[in-house]
Design goal:
Helix content is 36%, strand content 19%. The protein is of the alpha/beta class. Helix 4 runs parallel beside helix 5. The N and C termini lie far apart (49 Å).
Length: 459
Amino acid sequence: MGETLLWAPRAWLQDRWRETVLIGVGGDGRFSAFTPEVGQPPPAATVLPGPALPALVDAHSHAFQRAFVGLSERAERAGDDFWSWRDRMYQVAERVTPAGMQAIAAQLFVELLRGGYTQVCEFHYLQQDQGGRDYGDPLQLGWSLADAAAEAGIGMTLLPALYQRSGFGQIELRDDQRRFSSTPHSIWSAARRIAAARRPLLTAGIAVHSLRAAAPDSMRALLRLAHEHAGPVHIHVSEQRAEVTDCLAATGARPVEWLLRERMLDRRWQLVHATHCVRAEIEGVAHSGAGVVLCPSTEGNLGDGRVELREWLEAGVPLAIGTDSHVTRCWREELRWLDYSQRLAHGLRGASTAPTAGWPSAAERLFAGAVRAGGAAAGEARWGLVPGARADLLVMDPEDDSLRGIPPARLLDATVFSSPALPWRDVMVAGRWVVRNHQHAGAAAIARRFETAMHELWV
């Protein structure tokens, strides 16, 4: 296939809006060129019906938890918290089948595409069958996720996760965690098989569930096996205050402090949540080159706490966005939650801005950072509207009420801070349109299968 030309009335290039942009998409599904100030579209170009934005990476996902959204909002007893939510979530994890996993994930991935994500980092720790035994193919559930991504048309970074124990000082899993069991060798084997499959839009990384779920020797063993692995390494860390307290008691260090002390962190690492970190940890992460994945809607839903966003931003740590438990599936809402949490905490409307550093807009600052950081979290060397990056983009709908009458220079501000908004008008993944005029071709059939899977789980 030769080059395809697109013409956008404006596009977000190099962290700012540019007018009348000609976009080249190569036959390999990657961007070949961007030329601003092309006043009239060439005859061969497809004219986009609205401004073009980079798509975001959903840098943290547990797809099966989409089946739990809206069903954990009642407190069965006083003191409902993350840990009681987790116990209820395990009831879902115990019942999901491979077919159910694919049905749930495909519905989620269509929703993520419509919410502006074109790549999902799937943190995959549900590995065993319902009895806690290996499937005939140990990657059975992983392939269900990959099949769902292919069906929806979204890219995926599949991250098999090391999970061995129920907590600090424990040597085994609880019975309701039996489907999570893995070893350093099984995780590394899974990652190698995913990479070797060479499926379109599927890449491999590795993950450690958390310091409480993996013993230090097992983490070291996995890193030795993966010493030449250039892809991402993800870990849940410092999400809950109780986790920090337990880690201090078990190791004498806070979770991120321990990772730094053991010299594990490098540019491959992505620290998911990192909610409860002190300045020395933030500075250490910045020095290591690791990134952080924030999941504002899930962290709010679970009562995790509030990240010290200004300190992370000032330290220059890459900050990606994830949807985690999928209580929302739209990056606009994630960025809005992230900024509003800072406004509430600091009593300032500009808590996420940096006017003297050239960032008077919170929306633009957080979005630009999430574009760059998300690519790294997914293992993509280039991401966004830049030559060489995968040809993923979003087309804004000029008829969206939240954008009507907005001056072009303020479009991103309104996109994040004015709601409700329509789903993205058009979504492209690797040079192919997967959403056109708000419609996904497979959405109806996928939704029917999802409803069947939900009925089997809950009725």
